[in-house]
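Researcher: I'd like a candidate sequence for this fold, 626 residues long. If you have to choose between options at a position, lean toward the conservative one.
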């Protein structure tokens, strides 16, 4: 039997693998997705949620590029919240609580109905290499698939080892086997590898929770969601999350098990996620704190299973169980399974180009936790970039990358390939220099035209964007030219505790006040209300709010654009292959070593490498004659 030769093979059916496979296939590449379990596509191994601080912005960007994580998160949503609404729009971050079973099921539906995409259930154990290029893969059952490019998205499965107290289990997730041999082959090929750790908490039977002792946290009402496609929405019943706290008694019960903790007896040597620590790490790091907040998150629309967010642990299960039952509301709780830690292999991401192609083996791409990241959203973002670039490479087309001023995805990838990781990397708004340019409301403005030009974003998305921009600009023009007299608006101003007008002003000046929302002035200003009748009802809030943000923050946005343009001059100075850094003795030893290892493409990238100082950059600029 003759097997087809593929343009792109994707290894791994997690969040990165799913986005990579669909992107490559939708661009026209003949694509094969190989996964060990076709029943668990894009599995939510940890908390059943998508988005959050900075992560929500990433999901909006994936959607703007034509990816599916946002669509599936919206469809499987059982609660939506816009975080940081009390701050400026640069900080607003969407988050959904998902039905994790539906999330995986919807992904399977997408994959099985994507043209150009084949599926194969198996484990990849070997890469087929020839003359420094990857030529395909070999699976555990002995099948060899040929391909022009290969994308590895192995998640936590590469030599995965789980810990619950002194018990160890090989696997990539509870109840699932690990992936072997690939790490050894890549190490032999010259890749620098390491080990990282992550963890997950107990899952609780909701029938045994006393909700009367907990604080309810409901979702937001309103128009917000991830996808820019107006007809995408959840049809599932909404559910609340619940808040409780640990106590000194809980902490004492946990500390009794520290002697058997693999975190503290030397068993686990690898670094865990600093910003999502285990409960035992919190007790050590924040020893002065008397309590830690916990969230009970439903795993789905109808299930009784709850995820105890904030209680991740690798302590013996008996210790976890005893301590959990001292938490208010959980005194009689029953668990489905205890928490556990998992160690896994990753590869130093400085061994990648910004396309996520590896430097050691051509046509081979890495995406997701294999690069040292943590989080579904970071993985999915890398997946779509891998899929796009593998397709372009297979068809001899120019590469696709995003800058730090264009997307959080650009910040993520630049951080990885320039700085590397020494702990699981997660995205924060603080990592981005140009936060107000990377707002969640305008990811479509920034990225959909780029993706449409590639052939990934659909004509429908482009039409929706053009309609949004046209209407947004008409709103701004109207309020900039329309004068409002005091008698028509002062009642609103006084109700919002802002000074009344003494004379007529442009409506834009009223909307610019921090106390006033554009929605406050629609009803009292009849001409404005009539003008807004041109805005489609199913996109009304989205389009009107996009106009308001530009009205209120135009000065800040322009200032940040100027900063980004100034920095781009450095970004555009190419230094790839121009220096033998080991021979430049006027720069520091650390700079020589790191510049030699990373081989930055531009002065801008070189300036972001830790250990490379401004004086080192000045030496390089002088050598370039600048």
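Model: Candidate sequence:
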């Amino acid at each position: 039997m003759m097997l087809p030769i593929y343009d792109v093979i994707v290894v791994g059916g997690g969040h990165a693998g799913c986005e990579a496979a669909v992107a490559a296939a939708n661009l026209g590449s003949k694509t094969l997705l190989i996964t060990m379990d076709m029943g668990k596509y894009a599995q939510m191994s940890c908390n059943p949620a998508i988005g959050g601080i900075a992560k929500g912005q990433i999901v909006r960007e994936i959607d703007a590029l034509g990816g599916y994580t946002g669509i599936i998160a919206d469809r499987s949503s059982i609660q939506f919240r816009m975080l940081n609404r009390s701050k400026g729009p640069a900080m607003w971050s969407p988050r959904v609580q998902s039905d994790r079973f539906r999330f995986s099921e919807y992904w399977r539906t997408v994959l099985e109905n994507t043209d150009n995409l084949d599926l194969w259930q198996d484990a990849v154990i070997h890469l087929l290499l020839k003359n420094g290029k990857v030529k395909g893969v070999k699976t555990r059952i002995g099948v060899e698939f040929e391909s022009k490019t290969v994308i590895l998205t192995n998640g936590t499965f590469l030599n995965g080892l789980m810990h619950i107290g002194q018990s160890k289990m090989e696997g990539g997730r509870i109840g699932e086997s690990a992936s072997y041999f690939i790490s050894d082959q890549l190490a032999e090929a010259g890749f620098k590898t390491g080990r990282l750790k992550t963890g997950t908490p107990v899952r609780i039977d909701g029938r045994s929770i006393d909700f009367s002792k907990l604080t309810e946290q409901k979702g937001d009402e309103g128009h917000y969601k991830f996808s820019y496609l107006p007809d995408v929405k959840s049809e599932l019943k909404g559910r609340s999350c619940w808040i409780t706290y640990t106590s000194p008694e809980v902490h004492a019960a946990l500390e009794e098990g520290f002697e058997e903790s693999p975190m503290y007896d030397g068993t686990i040597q690898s670094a865990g996620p600093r910003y999502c620590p285990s409960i035992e790490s919190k007790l050590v790091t924040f020893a002065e704190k008397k309590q830690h907040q916990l969230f009970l998150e439903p795993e789905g629309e109808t299930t009784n299973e709850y995820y105890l967010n904030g209680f991740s642990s690798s302590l013996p299960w008996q210790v976890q169980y005893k301590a959990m039952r001292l938490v208010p509301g959980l005194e009689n709780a029953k668990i489905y399974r205890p928490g556990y830690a998992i160690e896994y292999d990753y590869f130093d991401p400085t061994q990648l180009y910004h396309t996520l192609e590896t430097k050691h083996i051509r046509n081979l791409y890495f995406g997701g936790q294999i690069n040292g990241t943590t989080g579904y959203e970071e993985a999915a973002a890398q997946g779509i970039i891998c899929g796009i670039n593998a397709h372009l490479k297979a068809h001899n087309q120019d590469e696709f990358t995003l800058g730090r001023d264009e997307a959080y995805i650009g910040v993520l990838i630049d951080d990885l390939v320039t700085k590397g990781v020494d702990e699981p990397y997660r995205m924060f708004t603080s990592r981005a220099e140009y936060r107000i340019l990377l707002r969640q409301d305008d990811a479509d403005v920034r990225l959909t035209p780029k993706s449409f030009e590639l052939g990934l974003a659909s004509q429908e998305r482009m039409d929706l964007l053009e309609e949004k921009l046209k209407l947004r600009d008409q709103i701004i023009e109207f309020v900039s030219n329309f004068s409002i007299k005091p008698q028509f608006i002062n009642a609103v101003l006084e109700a919002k505790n802002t000074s009344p007008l003494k004379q007529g002003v442009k409506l834009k000046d009223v909307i610019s006040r921090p106390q006033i929302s554009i929605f406050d002035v629609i009803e009292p200003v009849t001409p404005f209300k009539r003008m807004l009748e041109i805005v489609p009802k199913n996109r009304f809030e989205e389009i009107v709010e996009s106009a308001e943000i530009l009205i209120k923050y135009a000065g800040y946005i322009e200032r940040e654009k100027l900063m980004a343009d100034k920095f781009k001059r450095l970004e555009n100075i190419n230094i790839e292959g121009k220096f033998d850094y080991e021979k430049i003795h006027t720069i520091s030893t650390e700079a020589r070593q790191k510049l030699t290892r990373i081989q930055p493409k531009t002065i801008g990238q070189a300036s972001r490498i830790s250990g490379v100082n401004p004086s080192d950059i000045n030496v390089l600029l002088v050598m370039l004659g600048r």
